[in-house]
Amino acid sequence: MPVSKNVKLPHLFYGGDYNPEQWPEEVWKDDMRLMNKAGVNMVSVGIFSWAALQPGPDTYDFAWLDRLMDLMAEHGIMADLATATASPPAWMAKLHPESLPVDENGARYAQGSRQHYCPNSKAFRLYGQRLVRKLAERYKEHPALAMWHINNEYACHISQCFCDECSREFRVWLEKRYGTIDELNARWGTNFWSQKYYEWDEIGLPGKTPTYANPGQQLDYKRFMSDSLLDAYLGEQRILKEITPNLPIMTNFMGAFKPLDQFEWAKHIDVITWDSYPEPTAGIPVFAAMQHDLMRSMKGGQPFILMEQVTSQVNWRQHNPLKRPGVMRLWSYQTIAHGGDGVMFFQWRQSGAGAEKFHGAMVTHTGDENSRIYREVEQLGQELKQLDALVDSRVEAKVAIVFDWHNWWALELDSKPSRDVLYLEQIKQYYQALFEHNVGVDFVQPNADLSGYKLVLAPALYMVGPGVAANLESYVTNGGTLLTTFFSGMVDENDRIHLGGYPAPLRKLLGICVEEFDPMIPGQTNGIAVSGSGEYSCSLWADLIRLEGANDRATFTTDFFAGSPAITEHSFGEGKAYYVGTQPEAGFIKQFIGGLLTDLELQAPLMAPAGVELSVRTAASGERYIFALNHNSQAANIGLSEGVFVELISGQSASTSLELAPNGVAILQLQQ
Length: 672
Ligand code: GLA
Ligand code: ZN
What we know:
- This protein is an alpha/beta fold.
- Among the domains are: 55 residues, no CATH class; 201 residues, Rossmann fold, CATH 3.40.50; 59 residues, Sandwich (Immunoglobulin-like).
- It contains 17 helices and 25 strands.
- Strands 10, 11, 12, 13, 14, 15, 16, 17, 18, 19 and 20 form an 11-stranded mixed β-sheet that branches. The chain has a 9-stranded parallel β-sheet with strand order 5-4-3-2-1-9-8-7-6, covered by helices on one side.
- Helix 5 runs parallel beside helix 8 and helix 10 packs across helix 14.
- Bound molecules: alpha-D-galactopyranose and zinc ion (ZN).
- Alpha-D-galactopyranose (GLA) binds next to loops.
């Protein structure tokens, strides 16, 4: 089962994290039997094996991994082999206490959990890379080796470190970025509060400060930490590339995860993988769908792998309810519907000890195939085996949402007009509307080529860095439709205000000037009157907008700015630019976005009732696969007016309409 560098896989991946060092070797044979029975074709091995592989600074033990890899090869199970650097062994903390990370109060973290390393620690890098070289040299020709898994969920627990080594490296990073101290002072606006620097070694990390630290410094520190972690990744990646140039190399992401600028990371990752743990009781997993789309967008639509999800329940929420029968299957298909080419779990066999012993797994504490969970795992595995046709097919979206980690960091720094303007919340509201209209969505960076999209949404684009306004202008000039919202266009890439009337760099494009804004306190509302469609409630924020060429589509109904514009529309070149100067109620957003979709002739692929999610993947041959996912607890009927379809999981054909069971899934291919 070869896996080439461009990750064109012959099958959908199916498996999970496998931690055999937690079990006596006689259990491994049974693992293989149960994996084969469930249709598992790949497992992630060695993620937390550093201590098992290296008992001391100069001693290694690969014998057990040799035996395991051979056993896997014999049973046709591929290894997503980890570099094992996610949790350093105890001897490292003893020999190199400085390798442990430091919190913002200057306290060092203790050994004895996981991820207890400073990303800039020389000792961590040195020992880690030494181990990586040994692993790569040893297993480079091994028939079970399919892919490299570097470290694990970088920054999951430790996303910042305030140690001396980090402080030194921060100054090196800043000097490289700004060249001169004068430039740094200008970018950070250090004439404020006597913060001016004269020497590089006066600059520290924005740790514990009496009140707000310098926002430019805070923002650059976030960039620096993301870059430091990436540099740790690259240190391992370079070794693997040198020794196994044809194998895919990756680390697993965590979806819309704030600490890492994942667009930047993605340039150095061959296949995007991520770990998804939706709230089990939150109803339709819209946020999971959004994150699947975000992950697919990390490499321009290339299929991703869901590296972890849970079969049943996790152990780390306050309360950890079970996924109901059929839900794991439904959510697994949601992954594939959004462009996933693999569905994996944490973990294969439920641990008998340790902090995750109550975390669900594919094989539960019964230890065998006699559990509901295993039966569901086996059924899904057997189904996925029949779906090779889906591999490498693409989701082709005509709508994009602008997403930017630097914007996220800057928007949510402290001392803002409102603490309740949160980036993901703003993005989610607009995503939800598109999701409910069953229209596919990509995520793009603000500087991306937007010409392939009919509609681009840029909610809360607070930071408009170099080139961004010009990019948006040229998109709209050439016929695109853009929508942006309040508190956009406020600052440059160093969090300095774009002076000259908000949203200064976007004023021409939007045809408005925002003279003032009025954040609302929790519970406070205003209203918007929309010509021809009535009144709706709005909250959180109200912009005081002066029209400069735009028309108003809605006006505020109360307070001293009653009657002034709340939503505007501006024809610009061949296209249109919309601005939403408040947070309207969800029903209005759905309706307004629905109107734009109709104008742009963007429709759902089929007729489906509420709670049925639709998504389309298209193969290189042009063949289209329509996924229908019934998130309702009752059966649902979807209309198939277009013709006769074959449903790929059951092999049955269907025309006119199709009934989906509660939690049911269909993958439809048009026959005629
Ligand atoms: C993360 C980690 C896994 C495991 C799971 C538990 O995703 O990568 O090692 O701890 O969480 O949900
Ligand atoms: Zn550090």
